[in-house]
Write a structure and sequence with these properties.
- The protein is 35% helix and 25% strand.
- The protein is an alpha/beta fold.
- The chain folds into two domains: 166 residues, P-loop containing nucleotide triphosphate hydrolases (Rossmann fold), CATH 3.40.50.300; 72 residues, no CATH class.
- The strands form two sheets. Strands 6-7-8-3-9-10 form a six-stranded mixed beta sheet, with helices on both faces.
- Strand 4 and strand 5 form a beta hairpin.
- The chain is globular, with a radius of gyration of 18 Å.
- The structure holds adenosine-5'-triphosphate and magnesium ion.
- The site of adenosine-5'-triphosphate has 12 residues, from strand 2 and helix 1.
């Protein structure tokens, strides 16, 4: 292998995870002349946390929006639980989305609803048909998971940035999703709160065996949460491996991400 070409270095530990859950293969997405994803490939297996690193504006959010069908892709293949996203019907897409928790870059809470109502809304939207007692128990269990049971009746405006992130997380986790997509879950938080959020993501992975994509520039978060990382550069999966494999890689573009540590 030439030194400057580090594509698809497979982490040996990938073997111990389950079946492929998300399979992205040669994905292409442009907005006019803006060629964002050029040929991006990545596989996420059952129970695995994969961190996607990349400079601001390189296409990380576009990638996860393609996964949930919010942005249509131009070419290539993107399969979730074996279903090609560009080919499935709206109803199947809705069913699929119910299995995916998406934590937006902004927490995207409904400001006119209390924390409880925000969580209940997520449940209602996916039509789980639960009784009031079951709903209350779920809301409380989920808030307890993120350490914010006491904030159940609070309005989002009264929450700090870190609390909003945790409620955003709770709102996705309440559906017990098989897949979690986290877009910059720790950005803008102080290092201690960022570490708490990272630990929370790990806890959820272990408790529910979720498969996750975590988009982040936070290298401490990446180190803590990633079983494997993908470095997105110029719209491709430029390098892939465990945190230590990438850190040791003799490639200046990859190394740049580790210099801040
Ligand atoms: N809906 C859209 N229409 C047109 N262009 C878009 C759209 N969404 C994203 N883009 C463009 O795609 C590129 C990648 O954007 P994206 O939001 O994926 O970046 P990112 O890697 O998530 O950056 P950041 O780290 O700052 O969040 C940018 O040039 C952006 O302007
Ligand atoms: Mg983004």
């Amino acid at each position: 292998m030439k030194e400057d070409v580090a594509y698809h270095v497979m982490a040996p530990e990938q073997k111990k995870y389950g079946d492929p859950i998300i399979e992205i293969s040669h994905l292409v997405k442009s907005f006019g002349d803006n060629h964002v994803l050029r040929d991006y490939s990545l596989t996420i297996r059952k129970g695995e946390n994969v961190v996607v690193l990349g400079k601001s504006g390189c296409g990380k959010s576009v990638l996860i929006k393609c996964i949930v069908g919010l942005i249509p892709y131009d070419k290539g293949s993107l399969k979730v639980f074996g279903n090609e996203i560009s080919e499935i019907q709206q109803q199947e897409l809705d069913e699929l989305r119910a299995k995916i928790g998406f934590v937006f870059q902004s927490s995207a809470l409904y400001d006119s609803m209390t924390v409880r109502e925000n969580l209940e809304f997520a449940l209602r939207r996916h039509g789980k048909g639960k009784s009031r007692t079951e709903v209350n128990a779920l809301v409380e269990e989920t808030l307890d998971n993120v350490g914010l049971l006491h904030a159940v009746e609070v309005m989002p405006a009264e929450l700090s940035g870190g609390m909003r992130k945790r409620i955003g997380l709770a709102r996705s986790l309440i559906l017990k999703p098989e897949i979690m997509l986290y877009d910059e879950p720790t950005t803008g938080l102080d290092p201690i709160t960022a570490k708490e959020i990272s630990n929370l993501m790990l806890k959820m992975q272990l408790k529910y065996n979720t498969s996750s994509i975590i988009i982040s520039h936070d290298m401490h978060c990446a180190q803590l949460t990633a079983n494997r990382l993908s470095v997105m550069i110029d719209g491709i999966n430029y390098a892939e491996g465990t945190f230590d494999e990438l850190r040791k890689m003799n490639d200046p573009k990859v190394h740049a991400f580790f210099e801040i540590l």
